[in-house]
Amino acid sequence: MALPTQTDDFPGWYQEVVRQADLAENSLARGTMVIKPYGFAIWEAIQGAMDAVIKRTGHQNLYFPMLIPSRLLEREKEHVEGFAPEVAVVTHAGGEDLAEPLMLRPTSETIIWDAYSRWVQSYRDLPLLYNQWANIVRWEMRPRLFLRTTEFLWQEGHTAHETAEEAWEETLRMLEAYREVAEGTMAMPVHKGRKTAAERFPGAVETTTIEALMRDRKALQSGTSHYLGQNFAKAYGVTFLGRDGEEHFAEATSWGSSTRLVGGLIMVHGDDKGLRLPPKVAPVQVVIVPIFRSDDQKTRVLEASEKMAGAWRVAGLRVKVDDRDDLRPGYKFADHELRGVPVRVEVGPRDLDADQVTLARRDTGDKMALPLAGVEDVLVGLMPEIQQALLDDAIAFRDAHTHHVKSEDALRDALAGDGGFVIGAWCGGADCEAKVKADTKATIRFLPLEQEDPGAACVVCGAAGIEIATWAIAY
Q1: Is the pLDDT assigned to residue 170 strictly greater than 70?
Q2: Which pTM does this prediction carry?
Q3: Long-range contact list for 307-311, CB < 8 A, 24+ apart?
Q4: For the segment 236-256, what is each residue's pLDDT rounded down to a tens digit?
Q5: What's the CATH number for 10-269?
Q6: In angstroms, rounded to a whole number, what is the distance separating the alpha carbons of residues 287 and 361?
Q7: What is the helix (H) or strand (E) element at residue 381, kind and residue range?
Q8: Cys-Cys crosslink for 4: which of 12, 110, 433, 453, Cβ 3.0 to 4.6 Å?
Q9: Cα-to-chain-centroid distance, residue 84
Q10: Domain residue ranges of the chain, discontinuous segments joined by +
């Protein structure tokens, strides 16, 4: 089945890519999904890179239950109010009503900080640098596979510190970790910044974010790192005896990224043929398509293909031989293009007679005939080249759809026309922020990590600007 084009029907294109590339499907409960093996392999590659960075920065993994007593969630007022519309509650189990309702975790600050109140007594117990890989349940009103689902997979870090300075440094360190994985592993360029008060995580003092631009020129929040101050420590009684002999509340951070990144990967790199996967996350980096017409040719070509695949695997490549003999080569070519395999190798009897193969790059569509003896080195060298080319292409797309404006009319025109990131001065007023959102559906996606005087009037009200804001319509 042909894909819709991105230009004519981007939501339809996305849905069909997820379905036809066998990434995921809707499950029985509203808003839930089954992540299929190919989609899960992509997630595992992202997860593996993220886990390595998390551990490299000194954090340890642990695990907390997904069932949270309701009394815990009610102790941090701003936090519970922020998540109340999304929380699923278990009220009946074991054939009877529960004495206390249990919440399916929308995030784990509450149960983790209750534990921290038992784990922390002295400054010697700090910092606590922990992360967990888990599933999350948030009752999603408008579900979309990978992007917004009622249940999703993620990692959530929760740290406790002696000082505000140390906690803020941790917040920024983990934001940089997210940028590293997004750009270095996924080839997905992102901007780092702060959220406005209206867009902050419930209970946070500051929320920082990485924001990426999709091919439909909408923004995707791709990871957040929060400085929580002492809010959760005060709510859950996490105090410690300080170096000065006085009792202090711990300073906190939390940070998370999720399977939403798979959706971002699809929408940042995909084209009208389907996925274009960066080699670092591609489950299959090289697919060999044997071409034959007779049984004699089949035996010869398949044996040669398996021999090549074995040698290339030893060289560190993820290689698949597509030996399906009930499908024509042209169908296989299209199938692997849909799935985003970075490189296709075509080999037939004539190629073997000439001691050569034909290579096709998924990212550019370029094809080349190469001597068989040098193919392994070419393939190994192509992986970082394709990785960088996809990053460069995504950066060029983002920059081409970034606009600087000086008036509200120009802001509206840019959002209604080309879309993308629209940058202008902002007075810091919630009324101006809300007005743009009501008029255009765009939100301020991020502010600079350090407040900057834009040297211009607010594009909405004309008052003195105090921040450089970046607006976009977002997922």
Answers
A1: yes
A2: 0.96
A3: 308/345, 308/347, 308/357, 308/372, 308/375, 311/376
A4: 999 999 999 999 999 999 999
A5: 3.30.930.10
A6: 11
A7: helix 375-400
A8: 12
A9: 24
A10: 10-269, 286-382, 402-472
